[in-house]
Inverse folding.
């Protein structure tokens, strides 16, 4: 298992390096330092100010190759900073990026974490419910509703949710964010409801398939023949045996909790990490964008490894070699 | 089995009751603010994005000036109501007069009001232990000008202030000292500037006397002293707020001498300003300073609009206790919150325009809510430009090129464009100078901006392109319209012009790229036709006519003359016009320049943007301004009326929650019961 983990970690490191290299190439194909400066200082800034910005931010160095000093290039600096976790300051507004991450992580997790836990719990409960009532009109109605839910764009959910719950029924504020514990749920109610509804269709369809497959197995029939209750069969036996696909689905989603929800944060004015990423793309803010991509890649690779390890925990038959 | 069924039903009903109960508890209304604000004079506003910086030397956007202009007072200000815009004294006792000094130089002497103090801040302990504030002195203005010259600050207006004698030399000396001695940049900021010797043309003549010496005449300089760039900044704030050891950055921690000060600064969600009790207007109402009392004069229409109410005229400013700004990136939620009364003012989103505006006035539904619609033409211009270096459409094509540009100009209908894409908002432009700026003549009609297809076709034929076919080659003339926005909306707008030119037989292809690639094309000169715009920095025709001045061309100097227009006569007229006062000769010069542009057609002028703003009935003394003015101190609100109307407009509708619960129970419970019965 140790050898397997080391091998996976090595692959992970290579993957992250590849992501960093790709990001560098793609970004500088897209934007020049002059455009980065123009976006940061303003459209009306004269060329000399743009030049000064470029010098002040170190973008006057050669991008890839510097025969005089090979380590003094933008590419070398890019890797050096990311690998040493020295994230520096934003190109757009000179704020320390670590500070921005610190400020953004709480709003993002406030949206995504309850959504993730609630979505998982409700998704599994509903899936067990429809799987239990399989081949009945409840199951068929569930399938129709799930497919319907999956087919609608999240944008429609957002605009519809704001209109219905914020404007028409006036239950919650249409948008905004306040981190105070007494107020946070008031602002996040619509994003949570929308996030839950928009994701529930896919979740229920996936888990239902898993559970239906499990409920047709011999051990379920045996348990029932022995007089085991329906609830006990579903929650104790079926759920436990369906853990591997559930874990695969769940652990891979964890990195996205930290990277935030781009659309929900943008539409509801939530100052989280998702909107930091969107702003960085719009603002040619390379230093922030690379940190967001780097953290996303690291978390994703880690989540993959954790998923593999978790298989061995839920199923003793699995061996990592 | 009966027991099992009952358990199922019991659990389900309990779950649903808990779910809807939670929903009911959370749904305590849609008010995004604490109720305690109901009786306080707070102005609520939305910003479309987070400000990048509140450093007055750097900040150059209207959005940021909405904060900095209220926190940082300046030597001069604009009159709140008068149009055309008029300068009034702010922190200065009077407007300075230019004084010619030997060597063709011009000096302006500002006399500061004594006794003006900065807003209280812990930074002042750096200068004097225990101090919470100190007096604003002439040296604080000099310090701010030195900051603009500081290469490390990267101020976007460095070129403007380079007209001050010794400005560039100071900048170079400072950079050289920092390069020569690695530890120099670590010294306290005022010590660094002192070591660099200050700016020669910024003379501190006493604690309250400041003289600015210009190497060349530049009367527009005074306008810059009405902008936050030149506001007094205490060196203590810049020295202390360096972002180290948990301290703020100065760009996020403004310390000014304005009517408001920062109360709360969460850059990406909430920004709150509160009344500054140490503001000179509050401490010295007896001065009746022009920038500290509500004006008694305005332009025609102000009295009718209630902006010259005798009960308000002459009162000490500000009226508001607080400003609450929220970041709202999406305009639909922001507009809906305005309709609910949670924002005091708003623009009108495209999607709701017809609902809000009816035949150019407020719709009856909106008027019934007590709203008011304020229209204002911004000092701005939008235009289509030709790259005058291009061999087909530019100057190298000679007379053919000119006739082609004239023909293309004749078929673009600005009014139709505004009607289709801007709900009719916008004043058709006939020259670069917009309304409200000296040199604008409402009765002037540019003969090439009157749509005339037949005349355009004749011109095109004269140019040697009958029906768009090049007579020399027999091939269709193909042109490119370069867009810096690949969105379908931008393409649709571009199609409007392309289709107009198609009626002439011209084949114009839309080359849409993202903005970065477009800028790269402009830098390389690889573009033919483009669309662009400009908003005034200050209310002077020089700020518009310089956009076509030869030395400002993109290809020569990277300047804002993106059309690369160069005409020796126009350039000479510009030089004579730019330094003149607004007199008959200046108007004559502007008319001649306008005539050159009329004939040469480097631009097809589209419109001067007209903004429609909505205000709730509880707002008082509102007047839209196209320039960044410290308007918050003039505005007032009736907080009690607002609280009452908000309550009335936002009563939650609760019955659907219970109806939904009943429907769910009615649908699911019989199903379960039937299933369990069948299984039994």
């Amino acid at each position: 298992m140790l050898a397997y983990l080391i091998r996976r970690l090595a692959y992970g490191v290579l993957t992250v390096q590849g992501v960093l290299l790709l990001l560098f190439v793609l970004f500088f194909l897209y934007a020049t330092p002059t455009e980065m400066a123009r976006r940061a200082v303003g459209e009306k800034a004269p060329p000399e100010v743009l030049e000064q910005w470029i010098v002040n931010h170190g973008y006057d160095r050669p991008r890839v190759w510097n025969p005089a000093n090979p380590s003094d290039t933008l590419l070398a600096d890019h890797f050096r900073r990311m690998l040493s976790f020295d994230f520096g300051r934003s190109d757009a507004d000179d704020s320390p990026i670590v500070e921005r991450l610190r400020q953004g992580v709480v709003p993002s997790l406030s949206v995504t974490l309850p959504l993730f836990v609630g979505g998982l719990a409700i998704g599994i409960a509903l899936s067990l419910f429809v799987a239990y009532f399989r081949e009945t009109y409840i199951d068929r109605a569930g399938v129709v509703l799930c497919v319907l839910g999956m087919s609608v764009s999240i944008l429609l959910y957002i605009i519809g949710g704001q209109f219905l719950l914020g404007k028409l029924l006036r239950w919650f504020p249409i948008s905004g964010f306040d981190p105070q514990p007494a107020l946070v749920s008031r602002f996040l109610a619509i994003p949570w409801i929308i996030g839950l509804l928009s994701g529930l269709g896919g979740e229920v369809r996936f888990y239902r398939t898993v559970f239906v497959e499990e409920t047709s197995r011999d051990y379920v029939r045996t348990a029932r023949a022995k007089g085991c209750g329906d609830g006990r069969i579903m929650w104790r036996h079926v759920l436990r045996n369906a853990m591997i696909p559930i874990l695969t689905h769940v652990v891979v989603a964890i990195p996205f909790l930290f990277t935030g929800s781009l659309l929900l944060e943008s539409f509801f004015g939530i100052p989280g990490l998702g909107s930091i990423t969107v702003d960085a793309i719009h603002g040619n803010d390379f230093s922030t964008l690379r940190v967001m991509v780097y953290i996303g890649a690291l978390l994703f690779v880690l989540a993959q490894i954790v998923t593999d390890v978790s298989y061995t925990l839920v199923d003793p038959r699995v061996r990592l070699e | 089995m009966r027991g099992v069924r009952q358990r199922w039903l019991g659990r389900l009903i309990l779950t649903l009751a808990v779910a809807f109960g939670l929903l009911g508890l959370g749904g305590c209304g849609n008010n995004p603010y604490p109720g305690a604000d109901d009786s306080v004079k707070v102005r609520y506003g939305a910003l479309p994005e987070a400000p990048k910086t509140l450093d007055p030397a750097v900040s150059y956007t209207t959005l940021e000036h909405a904060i900095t202009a209220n926190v940082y007072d300046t030597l001069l200000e604009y009159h709140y109501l008068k149009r055309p815009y008029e300068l009034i004294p702010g922190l200065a006792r009077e407007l300075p007069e230019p004084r010619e000094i030997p060597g063709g130089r011009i000096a302006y002497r500002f006399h500061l009001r004594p006794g003006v103090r900065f807003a209280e801040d812990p930074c002042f302990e750096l200068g004097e232990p225990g101090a919470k504030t100190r007096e604003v002195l002439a040296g604080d203005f000099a310090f701010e000008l030195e900051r603009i010259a500081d290469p490390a600050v990267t101020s976007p207006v460095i070129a403007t202030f380079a007209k001050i004698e010794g400005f560039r030399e100071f900048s170079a000396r400072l950079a050289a000292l920092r390069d020569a001695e690695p530890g120099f940049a670590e010294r306290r900021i005022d010590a660094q500037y002192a070591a660099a010797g200050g700016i020669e043309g910024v003379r501190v003549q006493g604690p309250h006397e400041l003289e600015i010496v210009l190497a060349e005449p530049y009367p527009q300089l005074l306008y810059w002293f009405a902008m936050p760039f030149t506001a007094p900044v205490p060196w203590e704030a810049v020295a202390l707020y360096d972002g180290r050891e948990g301290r703020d950055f100065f760009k996020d921690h403004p310390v000014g001498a304005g009517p408001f000060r920062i109360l709360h600064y969460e850059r990406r969600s909430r920004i709150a300003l509160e009344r500054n009790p140490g503001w000179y207007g509050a401490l010295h109402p007896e001065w009746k300073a022009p920038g500290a009392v509500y004006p008694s004069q305005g332009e025609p229409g102000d009295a009718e609009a209630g902006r010259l109410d005798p009960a308000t005229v002459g009162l000490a400013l500000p009226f508001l206790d607080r400003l609450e700004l929220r970041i709202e990136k999406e305009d639909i939620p922001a507009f809906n919150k305005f309709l609910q009364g949670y924002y005091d003012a708003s623009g009108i989103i495209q999607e709701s325009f017809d609902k809000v505006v009816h035949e150019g006035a407020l719709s009856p539904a909106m008027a019934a809510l007590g709203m008011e619609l304020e229209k204002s033409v911004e000092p701005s211009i939008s235009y289509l430009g030709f790259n005058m270096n291009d061999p087909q459409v530019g100057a190298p094509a000679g007379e053919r090129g000119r006739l082609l540009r004239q023909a293309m100009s004749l078929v673009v209908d600005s009014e139709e464009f505004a009607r289709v894409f801007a709900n009719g908002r916008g004043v058709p432009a006939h020259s670069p100078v917009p309304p409200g700026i000296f040199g604008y003549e409402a009765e002037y009609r540019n003969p090439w901006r009157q749509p005339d297809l037949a005349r355009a076709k004749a011109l095109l034929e004269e140019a040697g392109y009958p029906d768009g076919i090049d007579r020399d080659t027999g091939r269709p003339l193909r042109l490119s319209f370069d867009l810096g926005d690949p969105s379908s909306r931008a393409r649709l707008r571009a199609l409007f012009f392309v289709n107009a030119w198609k009626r002439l037989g011209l084949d114009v292809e839309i080359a849409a790229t993202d903005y970065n690639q477009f800028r790269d094309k402009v830098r390389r000169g690889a573009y033919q036709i483009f669309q662009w715009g400009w908003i005034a920095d200050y209310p002077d025709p020089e700020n518009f006519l310089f956009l076509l001045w030869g030395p400002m061309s993109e290809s020569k100097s990277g300047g804002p003359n993106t059309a690369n227009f160069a005409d020796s006569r126009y350039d000479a007229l510009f030089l004579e016009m730019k330094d003149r006062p607004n007199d008959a000769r200046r108007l004559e010069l502007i008319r001649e320049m306008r005539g050159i542009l009329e004939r040469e057609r480097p631009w097809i002028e589209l419109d001067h943007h007209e903004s429609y703003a909505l205000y709730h009935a509880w707002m008082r003394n509102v007047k839209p301004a196209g320039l960044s003015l410290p308007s918050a101190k003039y505005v007032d609100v009736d907080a009690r009326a607002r609280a009452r109307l908000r309550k009335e407009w936002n009563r939650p509708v609760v019955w659907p929650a219970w109806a939904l619960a009943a429907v769910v129970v009615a649908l699911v419970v019989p199903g379960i019961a039937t299933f369990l019965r069948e299984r039994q």
